[in-house]
Automatic annotation (TrEMBL):
PROSITE patterns referenced in this protein's UniProt entry, alphabetically: FHA_DOMAIN (PS50006)
Ranges where the FHA domain occurs: 25-75
Coiled-coil region(s): none
Listed name of the protein: Glycogen accumulation regulator GarA
């Protein structure tokens, strides 16, 4: 049995992305994460979904800045069941059991900016002299 991890867009309630995977599964911003979500509220290795010694699906925080929430309660580690929604940063994942096969493309990066309105670029004004040493070297 595999698990389907469904990213939910809270602005419209639609399912925006899904991954079909077998635990253990790491979710985060890092490109090597099993579930890669490009959003600044998510740590590089935010959390891990795994099977506990009794075979139940559980989730644990991997030291993230913004934590993980199950039923709007911040947790470090807890057992979760199909239908549970887990919030990591500002992103919500719904967990489902599935007989579907694992999708080879399931580790595609989801860029949250693609789901929201376009964000303006940050403009930085830098005054540099090429080839000149920094002031503190002189």
């Amino acid at each position: 049995m595999n698990y389907k991890f469904v990213l939910i867009d809270r602005s419209n309630g639609n399912d925006e992305a899904e991954w079909i995977l077998t635990p253990p599964v790491v979710a985060g911003r890092c490109p090597t994460a099993d579930i890669t979500i490009s959003d600044e509220s998510i740590s590089r290795r935010h959390c891990q979904f795994f099977l506990d010694p009794y075979g139940s699906l559980a989730v644990r925080d991997l030291g993230s800045k913004n934590g993980i929430y199950v039923d709007e309660r911040r947790v470090e580690k807890t057992v979760v069941s199909p239908g549970t929604e887990v919030r990591i940063g500002r992103i919500t994942l719904r967990l489902e059991l599935t007989d579907e096969e694992i999708d080879d493309d399931s580790n595609d990066v989801v860029d949250i900016l693609d789901l929201d309105e376009t964000q303006p670029m940050k403009i930085i004004d830098v005054d540099l002299e090429i080839g000149a040493p920094p002031d503190d070297v002189l």
